[in-house]
Amino acid sequence: MYGAGSDPTKPTATGFPVSYSTSTTYTTNDSSSYAPPAPPQPKPIVEWSTGLCDCFSDCGNCCLTWWCPCITFGRIAEIVDRGSSSCGSSGALYTLVCCVTCCACIYSCFYRSKMRRQHGLKGNGCTDCLIHCCCEPCALCQEYRELENRGFDMIIGWHGNVEQRSRGVAMTAVTAPSVEQSMNR
Fold first, then answer.
1. pLDDT confidence tier of residue 72, bands split at 50, 70 and 90
2. Is the pLDDT of residue 170 over 80?
3. Which of 63, 122, 141, 165 is deepest in the core (most CB within 10 A)?
4. pTM assigned to the model
5. CB neighbour list of residue 136: distance below 8 Å, 6 or more residues apart
6. Rounded distance, CA 109 to CA 115, Å?
7. Where are the transmembrane segments (predicted)?
8. CB of 64 closer than 8 Å to CB of 71
């Protein structure tokens, strides 16, 4: 149990500090003790702002998604990825997956899941996959509408939205001083 040359009256080294003195007492001051911060509260699960089959409330997006879903998907992916991927590259990858597998829903359902987690939307991975496999255009339209309802301008993309919001904050924060009319020469 003890190695050669070690003192059997002392405990073996464990890497943890050990006090050998029994007369020393340690006190802690509550103000100096460290308490880890509380974990963030999970977002409450909310319903989607529109239904899956509310496609006809926005005929322009419905037609675009029906004839060219890669554009709708690219716009969604750019916002969900927070600008780390562009609309063009995501749309091109969507088209490539569609041409190779004839089933782009394999790719797009992952973005629905990612969007759900970011915004605390109702659903799960299984329903995301089923919705995209059974009705890809309706799923893309619903995601597009959801992001629009959350204040995103889908046409200008992530960076355009960030610039627009930062410019709006700067414009409201700095206001011109009022000029009094009574000061005349």
1. very high
2. no
3. 141
4. 0.69
5. 69, 104, 105, 108
6. 10
7. 91-110
8. yes
